[in-house]
Amino acid sequence: MSRTPNVLVIVLDCVRASDFPGVRPGVDGMPATKALQKEFVAFPRAVSPATWTLPSHVSLLSGENLWEHGVHGKGRSTLPSGLPGIAPMLRRLGYRCLLASVNPFVSPDWGFGEGFDTVDWGGGYGLYLRAGGSVVPPFSSAPNEPARDALSRFRGSRWTGPATQYLPETVGRFPWVWDASIRMARHLRGRTEAPPVVGSWLEPTVERWLGGQASDRPVFALLNLLDAHEPYLMAPGRPVSFSEWTRFATSRADRRGWMYGSWHPSRRQLAVLHALYVEAIRMLDARIGRIVRAFQATGRWDDTICVITSDHGQAFGESGHLFHGFRAFEPLVRVPLWVHWPNGDRGGSRARGWASLIDVAPTVAEAVGEPMAEFPEAVSLSSLVVNDRPGPVCAVGDGSQWGRWADLPADRKALLDRVEVAAFEGSTKTVVEKGRVGARAWELDEEGYERSSEPRELAEGGATIADLRSKLERLTAGPVAKLSVDVGERLTGWGY
């Protein structure tokens, strides 16, 4: 076991803080995760810099906010080469580095991979094909190999290609067809009891990779788990009454219909979606436990700094929003954040200060003895355990991505396609929006959540608003990426 700490970052895609243990009561039925609490420091006031996967992962790895790295819906669409961050830093120090992501956004196709020795990732269709049992990643890139389009083979097929375009909309409108198909496929494959996880290949891949590393060489693994991402499926492995199944089967999850205003989910439908989301979070419990056991089995755990977090949250009708993206609402930007320092140092405690995903990079740099000058707006999470943050944490709502959804009805475009920066500091949340004079402010409770849905209107002026306005201008100053037809089709095939 090396003296240099190993680094493990587990990103639970779409998991919001209010439904994860450690902040509010969270989801019950997560024994493995709750057993780990005594070894972790929980950061109950943690914020993601973005409301969707691509920019938030760039911020996590680089330690930069969106207006610094420029990867967001009103800027770049891929990581710029040479961006400083965790993986290049650790590889330079002799670490073996693995990126294993079930989410296809976190792959070489979008610029991820620099600094990693091995990159394994899934295709977007993995959200829909949950028959289970795969132990091999769909796509893999070893060192010095060219990155491959994660959907080229699937979309290029005469038979499966068209399905990638219509699958998200069909599943959203007719969930009972998808549910029945998955149950039949699992029955035919003899996997009726296996949990319907997304990307069952990830844990075996991590175990094989760890087993192949020299015991005296430190490792870094960045893992993305996609189970809490829509669309949601009832667990085929447990008994379901006919009335329960009917309630699910008649509840749409039509993101596109909601965006265009053709579908207005009822309270009952939103409640069903949230219940399925909670069930998906429960399935993550066993996956977290297995990953930690893999590090324990190889004698690395006590020497590991481990971060468990999410790239963004998920909304189920709060502020009139569904799922994620577009706006910087609380359910979308408040995320769980747990940190395990080597030997469980300070485990079982709750941190005081506001935290952000951008703080992960300087935390790792501090742990391995690297200078933190590359992270001007981020701080080490160790400094926030007992102290307040010396400034605000920020989140960005970047509206529609790269000019897509241009045909949205005017009222829906006015609601969704806004660019805003939200700042959380002390007991106040302040939001400035492009094209809107002044700012809005909310008073927050002791856990950092809004006390009221009605904000105070603030006039222009003052250091806080001026600083946020400057960040907003930097965010929208650069050119907007122009996506190719191929990339646009890929996003549509993923439900975006």
Which topology does CATH recognise? Alkaline Phosphatase, subunit A
CATH classification class? Alpha Beta
Main beta sheet: 8 strands, mixed
Backbone structural class:
alpha/beta
How far apart are the first and last residues' alpha carbons, in Å?
A: 43 Å
Please state the average pLDDT score: 87
Q: CATH H-level name... which superfamily?
A: Alkaline Phosphatase, subunit A
Q: What is the approximate shape?
A: globular
Fraction in beta strands: 5-15%
Discrete helix count: 16
From the structure above, extract its key features:
alpha/beta; 17 strands; Alkaline Phosphatase, subunit A; 16 helices; eight-stranded mixed sheet; globular; 496 residues
Layout of secondary structure:
Blueprint (H helix, E strand, L loop, with lengths): L5 E7 L18 H6 L4 E2 L3 E2 L5 H10 L3 H4 L16 H7 L3 E6 L16 E4 L17 E3 L10 H5 L4 H13 L1 H14 L13 H10 L7 E7 L16 H8 L5 H5 L7 H31 L6 E6 L5 E2 L5 E2 L6 H4 L3 E4 L14 E2 L3 H9 L24 E5 L12 H7 L3 E6 L2 E6 L5 E5 L12 E3 L4 H13 L9 H9 L3
Parallel strand pairs: 1-7, 1-8, 3-12, 4-5, 4-7
Antiparallel strand pairs: 2-11, 5-6, 8-11, 9-10, 13-14, 14-15, 15-16, 16-17
